[in-house]
Design a protein that fits this description.
- By secondary structure, the protein is mostly beta strands.
- 4% of the residues lie in helices and 48% in strands.
- A nine-stranded antiparallel beta sheet has the order 16-17-18-15-14-13-12-11-19, with no helix packed on it. The protein has a five-stranded antiparallel beta sheet with strand order 3-2-1-4-5.
- The longest helix has 7 residues.
- The radius of gyration is 29 Å and the shape is elongated.
- 31% of the residues are buried.
- The N terminus is likely disordered.
Amino acid sequence: MVTAQAASAQPPTGQVLGIEADGDGCAVTLVTGIDQLLNGRVDSDTCTQLSAGSEIQFTPALTQVEVLPSPTVATVTELVAGDRACYVNLVDANDKTTTQFANFDLCEQDLVGAQVRLTYETGNIIAFSCEGDIECGRSDRAILISQAEVISRPTPTAQPTVGSLPDGNYRYWSGSSNNAVVSDQELLANGGVTFLFSKRGNNVTGLFGYVDGEAICVQGQVNDNAVTGISVQNLRGANVISSGETFSNFGPSDRLQVRRGRQINRETVRYNSTLLNLAGMNRINAGSVLPPGRC
């Protein structure tokens, strides 16, 4: 029989989390759509039909249980590597949201946002009763996604040009991330260059720099994704890269090129001609530091 907490208001559907078989049936742990855990028993015939990860429809006291079909085509919205399996959040063609169990290697694939065709297999996972202890020695039979074949991916939305942005403060990064909000730790781990700037009309003033490296102030006018103007580096020991009419890269990246440089003092170098190419860089969170007011 089901426990008292599952008595009179049994929900119509739930997902099997754990199965513990004994001689005349098995104990079943379910989770409903409101994240309520239910514990019950089913007979031996019903027990053979159930697997961890299965969605079922049931009556009070689990007197009747129907295993609902798992989606075969759906869009992946999230992949979470858990202690028992890779948990795959899906939305099917009817906008129904489900969480399916999958082999762990699926969590390492680039599937979020893709529409996929799913293949399932039966396998064994750590028992729900083990509470995450991989040494407990018990397992549950489970229905697992073994393969997700990509049918289609969303068409990337074109990023607006810098010149078309409304006035405000922005930060662009040469790296890529699954999140629009990029932490300092992620920047340090991935490197690249950033440009933190303010835009007022076509006028742009900002700090171009290598993550955990040299930086230079850039001031000028923006056209599409290109900024032309001047740049000033304030750094003890800074030296002129190009004093003539030939452009030179500021650092290993070719995004910022400077020329007509002159040494103002031992800590300041000014370039009277600067080209900054922001095409292909990704807009991320502006962060907590304000861009410079002027160079």
